[in-house]
Design a protein that fits this description.
The structure is a single chain. The chain is an alpha+beta fold and 270 residues long. It has a single domain, classed as Roll (2,3-Dihydroxybiphenyl 1,2-Dioxygenase, domain 1), CATH 3.10.180. The chain is built from five helices and 16 strands. It has a nine-stranded mixed beta sheet, with helices on one face. Strands 2-3-4-1-14-16-15 form a seven-stranded mixed beta sheet. The radius of gyration is 18 Å and the shape is globular. This is Catechol 2,3-dioxygenase.
Length: 270
């Protein structure tokens, strides 16, 4: 997969939810994630033994609003177009409510949300050679996706998330793009890979984006107030050199973005 060799990549996301059993069951049935552990009000789900989503139940948490900073979507990267096609057919047969589908030039993506409104993308990358324009810049768009053509790529039935499925990227709602750029580029060390009206995309190792930040719903949003439903934290995985560089710049591997969301950086192999 195109993100696998990046010096910094997404480890997992942590979400706070009101109805833990209902949301956990959704990620198991709709996305085919395996329940890796359950401890009290925490459920960890993933693929291939790797945690991709950690759910924390808190019935008393404030319900987040669509206008504040936080999660836009968690994007699950399938290892092949055939795998995405198998999932699409599963979603149709299971009547999983879909919210949209787009051809982003760099990828083919399908959108939905969990029962508490946390955005989800399920996608597959196109070959890296197809990502660039004539000037060598990453070029993305939001074009219509031919779902029928995609479905024809299925090579069998969906039997659950493939072992090598990962969280390819996390798209955030932010209060201002310049502040997001200063944090992700200057503190975390992810170069800006592309801009879109009201959004910036940051990637490591040449990947089209591991993180995005947009103001489409959240322009001028202030700091988040916790405890609240929705995104609790994003965990990154960095190789030794990048982990050390982040600690040198920030003084810690436990960061906080400009809107108060914890960004935790683990060292690969630790």
């Amino acid at each position: 997969m195109s993100t696998a060799s990046a010096p910094i990549e997404i480890g997992h996301v942590t979400l706070t939810v009101h109805d833990l059993p209902k949301v956990a069951a959704f990620y198991e049935t709709a996305l085919g994630l395996a329940r890796l552990s359950s401890e009290g009000e925490t459920v960890r789900l993933g693929a291939g033994g790797n945690v991709l989503v950690e759910l924390r139940g808190d019935r008393h948490a404030r319900r987040s609003t669509p206008r504040e900073a936080g999660l836009f979507h968690t994007a699950f990267l399938m290892p092949s177009r055939a795998a995405l096609a198998r999932w699409l057919i599963h979603a149709a047969e299971s009547r999983v409510p879909l919210q949209g589908a787009s051809d982003h030039l760099v990828s083919e993506a399908i959108y939905l949300a969990d029962p508490e409104g946390n955005g989800i993308e399920v996608y597959v990358d196109r070959p890296r050679s197809a990502w660039y324009d004539a000037a060598g810049q990453v070029k993305m768009a939001t074009d219509a996706l031919d779902l029928n053509a995609l479905a024809q790529a299925a090579d069998g039935r969906w039997t659950g998330a493939p072992e090598d499925a990962v969280v390819g990227h996390v798209h955030l709602q932010v209060g201002a793009v310049p502040q997001a750029e200063a944090f992700w580029r200057d503190t975390v060390g992810m170069p800006i890979m592309a801009h879109y009206p009201g959004a910036a995309f940051f990637g490591s190792g040449g990947y089209h984006h591991h993180i995005a930040g947009n103001i489409w719903n959240s322009r001028n949003a202030g700091p988040r107030s916790f405890p609240a439903t929705g995104l609790a934290s994003v965990t990154l995985r960095a190789d030794a050199a990048d982990h050390a560089a982040i600690v040198a710049r920030a003084g810690s591997a436990d960061l906080t973005d400009p809107w108060g969301t914890p960004i935790l950086v683990e060292r690969k192999g630790a």
